[in-house]
């Protein structure tokens, strides 16, 4: 039996963490997270962190030598060319980490959480695509509350990603997170029990 590899994606602040916490807790499904892999890729002393410091100078680093993620965010969320440069540096490393983890896992079902699943060209790693959605106003409000951003900063982060409707158009499953938590988790239950026929 081939592995079932679910690619969970969606816009920023649409509820991906809520869903992965539920899948891990209620169903014991292993979660492989692109954000964690990306953080590991720029860890202290890594060649990728060295390349970033070489491009932006020492001010991109915190006093301990680690990446100043906030400062990097200010650069890449406002400049498409710089975001592309960073993505081209980090995405291949993240892909390699996913491939190693998939190969090493003996479990039948895995969830890959990849916010930039389409943008990073990683759809080939998964057997089905789940897209999280909610209204853009809900995204903005969640970002303001969660990340303490201004409305303009929240909007810039949303705009830096592929429009949610484009992601929905390529989804095998759409999880709508505009209602209650209970409604969302029921959708997850249904989606997990429906085995892909491909």
Distance between the termini: 12 Å
Supply the number of helical segments. Answer: 9
Number of strand segments: 5
Biggest β-sheet, characterized?
5 strands, parallel
Order of secondary-structure elements? EHEHHHHEEHHHEH
Placed side by side, the strands forming the largest sheet appear as 2-3-1-4-5
Low-confidence stretches: none
> SS-based structural class?
alpha/beta
Which value, in Å, is the CA radius of gyration? 17 Å
Percent helix, as a range, is 40-55%
The whole-number mean of residue pLDDT values reads 93
Which word captures the global form? globular
Percentage of residues in DSSP E strands: 5-15%
Question: What can you see in these coordinates?
Answer:
- The protein has 198 residues and is of the alpha/beta class.
- It is built from nine helices and five strands, in the order βαβααααββαααβα.
- The chain has helices spanning 16-27, 34-41, 47-56, 69-76, 80-104, 136-147, 151-159, 164-169, 181-193; strands at 4-10, 31-33, 109-113, 128-133, 173-176.
- The chain has a five-stranded parallel sheet, sandwiched between helices.
- Helix 2 (34-41) crosses helix 5 and helix 6 packs across helix 7.
- It is globular.
- The model has no long low-confidence stretch (mean pLDDT 93).
């Amino acid at each position: 039996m081939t592995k079932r590899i679910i690619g969970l994606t969606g816009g920023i602040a649409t509820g991906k963490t809520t869903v992965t916490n539920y899948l891990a807790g209620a169903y014991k499904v292993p979660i492989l997270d692109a954000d964690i892999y990306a953080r590991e890729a720029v860890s202290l002393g890594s060649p990728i962190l060295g390349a970033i410091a070489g491009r932006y100078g020492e001010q991109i680093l915190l006093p301990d030598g680690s990446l100043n993620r906030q400062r990097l965010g200010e650069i890449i969320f406002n400049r498409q060319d710089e975001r592309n440069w960073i993505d081209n540096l980090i995405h291949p490393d993240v892909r390699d980490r996913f491939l190693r983890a998939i190969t090493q896992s003996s479990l039948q079902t895995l969830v890959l959480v990849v916010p930039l699943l389409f943008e990073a060209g990683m759809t080939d790693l998964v057997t089905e695509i789940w897209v999280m959605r909610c209204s853009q106003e809900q995204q903005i409000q969640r970002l303001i509350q969660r990340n303490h951003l201004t409305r303009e900063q929240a909007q810039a982060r949303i705009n830096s990603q592929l429009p949610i409707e484009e992601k929905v158009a390529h989804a095998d499953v759409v999880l709508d997170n505009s209602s209650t938590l209970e409604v969302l988790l029921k959708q997850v239950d249904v989606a997990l029990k429906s085995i892909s026929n491909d």
